Amino acid sequence: MPTFRYKAYSTAGASVSGVLEADSERQALTQLKGKGLLPREVHEEGAADQAASSFSFRSGISTTDLALFTRRLATLVASSIPLYEAMGSLFEQEESGKLKQVLARVRDRIAEGASLSRAFAAEPKVFGESYISMVAAGEAGGALDTVLDRLADFLEEQEQVRSRVTSALAYPVLMVLVGGGVMLFLLTMVIPKIVVIFEDSKAALPLITILLIKFSHFLRGWWWVLAALLIASVPLYRKAMLRDDLRLKRDDLLLRLPLAGGMLQQLILSRFARVLGLLLASGVPIIRALEITSEVLVNRVYRSFLRGVMEELAQGGSLSGSLRKSRLFPPMLVHLTGVGEKGGTLEDMLLKAGIAYEREFNTRLTRLMGLMEPLLVLGMGLAVGIVVMAVLLPIFEMNQLIK
Predict the structure, then answer these.
(1) What is the pLDDT of residues 66-113, one digit of tens each?
(2) What is the spatial distance between Cα 333 and Cα 356, in angstroms, rounded to a whole number?
(3) Which of 111, 114, 361, 395 is buried most, with the most CB atoms less than 10 Å from its CB?
(4) This prediction's pTM
């Protein structure tokens, strides 16, 4: 009988996972529902790895659409409109697409008596654990509209950061592509035609010209090797990243990069502080909030450290004391965390720290992009200049011999 691994939510909203035996996935889902669990993920053992290693082109729901939906839902909930009517209204307003299909399923679950958080939990590809946990805490505390407003603010701010990074990288990427295309054209189309003149003259060529000719011949004769390596590197990299030890080494290397590593750390700290602060402000217990926050952070180095922090907190330790033990968390964040713990305003201090790190990241990003643009132009000019010099030097020497 096949074995299925599952992740689900209990009636109390806690996340549970385990293994069960069933003839099919449908029977596994039926067993989970019979135990009072709301399935989140169910997959047959052995099939998960295969699915993870394959390419996926499934379109999802953008953060902008999710933030807009959350904002509209918060407005309707604050107006004391019943959840089923609110979801039905949002379903009717939504244009045809994946989100409309999700809203239809959520509305049907609410009609069957499920809470909003459990209805969202059945759509794990759309609503993450942090989203579901905050909604569940808002329902339990009677402040669902406030929590949804906070969620909408957070999603909008995250989308702004993503748009800012994308816009900043657009120009450098375009310059690299254009510069690479120009160099490729010169080396494969222009240089071979000029080389014929030098070969007929039988004159001694400068070293820079010889190297350029050899590189041009290599590109023309072995371009397919480079293309094959480039194409093969994508699935090989994806397969390698399925191993936790390699992902941990990659993430540690990214943090140690001279300039980008510091900016990446600021971005991670901003997300850590803001997500943890939002979860605590919504009423989620701190250990559960740390567990969710660690899953939100994509960097495995931070994830592994936060697991140790959760163990120390479970044994009665303090958050600031645990964070102080690692270089991953700078003194300012540790200090604000300690002040928040002593004053009972931990969530406020974390949110302030998150905003501060986000502003610092934006400042450094703007400064870096302002410096990178002239450097890229200078780099392109230098590369083209080397090619021009390698072509002109032999011509000048030939002119000297003729004179």
Answers:
(1) 999 999 999 999 998 989 999 989 988 888 778 888 899 999 889 888
(2) 10
(3) 361
(4) 0.72
